Structure formats: C-alpha cells, structure tokens
Amino acid sequence: MKTAQITLTPEELLSLAPEVRAKFRDAVTPRRAATTQAAVPPRKASIEEVPDEEFVSAAAEDLWTEKEGDFYMEDPIEMYLNGVGDADDSDDDCLIVARESHALRSIDGLIANRVAIECLLDPESQVIAMLEEVCHFLELHYTPDIKIRLQSANRQYSESLGLARNLPVRFGNMTIYLQIHIVRGVAYDILLGRPFDVLTESVVRNYANADQTVTMINPNGGATLTLPTFPRGHHLFRDEQVKQQRA
Predict the structure, then answer these.
(1) 70 and 145 part of one domain
(2) Which residue, of 5, 22, 25, 158, has the fewest CB within 10 Å?
(3) pTM: predicted TM-score of the whole model, two decimal places
C-alpha cells in the first residue's frame, strides 16, 4: 500500500475513472467545424426588352449585362437573328435563308406571227391554255368539239371552250407548233404547261438574284435557244391595247 507508483494501462485507467473516460471521448470524437462566410448583398434580376439597334452579337457567357447595379439577360434567339441580318456575306457563320415568295416567270411569244403575248411558265400544268379574249383578239380558229375539264389551284372545275391545233408560236428565232386549249375567266394570257417542256426539252436555270433563263431545243431541226424570263405581269394583255391595235 505504501508503493510510490502504480503502473496502469490506458484501458484500466479509463475503466476505473469515468471522468477521465468522458474527457478522453470528447478529445478523440470528430466534430464538424462551423465556417463563417461574409454576407453577400442581395441582387435583383429583371428581364427587359431592348430595342433592336442595341443588340450586339455575344457569346453565351456574355448574355448577362449589368445596368445601374442590376443584372438582366437579353434574348439569345433574337440576338442571333439580328446578328444574322447584319453579318457580312464573307462570314462563315452568315445564314442565308429563302425569301417569303418570288413572282412566277414568263416569256414573250409571237402568236401566229401577229402579236407578242406574255406566256406564263407553269411546269405543273398538264395543258397549254389561252385566255378567250386573247384568242378572239388574234382571230384564231379552234375546234369546239374538243373540250376538257380543268381544275384550278383552288380546286374549282371549269370546261374549256375548244382546242387550237398546231398554232405557231415564235420565241426569239425559234418557231414551234402547240396545241392550245381556249379557256374563259383565267388570270393569265397564255399558260405554258408540261406539253411545252416536253416538246422543247426545256431546261430552266435559276440564279440567286431571282433571274431565270430557259433553254429550249427546236424539235424541227434541233437548234438550241436560251431566253431570259421576266416576272409575271410585265407584258399583260389588256383591253386598252386591243382597242388601240384594232384602231
């Protein structure tokens, strides 16, 4: 009992002294340390419509813009479309798109060696047709026994008046002979449908500036001719012109 030192293992010491055991447990138990962060002042975000002239091309990371301490985000789609309109043609990113519409094209044909009439090119039509007033003005003969039922673009049906056989039509220095149906109340003077394309083996070439040419082969001789086309309506048949020429 009078020994100055007693040797104990840590296990024996912790089992004998509850206070020491509690302090040891607190020392070795891991704890999550709380971190302090600086207070971030709140920012307001708003969406604002910006006039077209203020839009500029920007990368996606540059869409956020600071204005008077606030942040707003511009519409990326509208920014892109406005950038396309102002882009240089030499830019690889320039997008070329089609126009909403283009006028139909036509050529002038000298009918029966009398008057040049505008001929509308329509490869989707199955016939070649002529307005009744043009036929009467040119004093052309046609066979009323040959009639066909025609369907217009609005799906309305009408009947032709007859057929003008082997009618000579001159384009430039080339004369070809066509079978033309006479019709009433249409919006064209002469319609050159697929029979014209098949007879002349026509080849149409379009250009980016909306110009168009048609190359034809004369079935009687094989000569080739290329003609420029014009927007529809440049040389329409009118009653005033008829009156002047008859006078």
Answers:
(1) no
(2) 5
(3) 0.57
| CB contact at 8 A, 108 and 119 | yes
Determine, yes or no, domain membership for 24. Answer: no
The answer to whether residues 224 and 135 belong to one domain is yes
Q: The tokens 């029979």 sit on which residue?
A: 195
- Give the tens place of pLDDT for each residue, 124-181: 899 999 999 999 999 999 999 999 988 776 677 889 999 999 999 999 999 999 999 9
E strand residue ranges, 50-202: 64-67, 70-73, 105-111, 115-121, 129-131, 149-151, 157-159, 162-171, 174-183, 190-192
Rounded CA-CA distance 217/199 in Å is: 8
Task: Give the Cα separation of 150 and 147 in Å (integer).
Answer: 9
List the structure tokens of 193. Answer: 């449908």
- Contact, 216 vs 174, CB < 8 A? yes
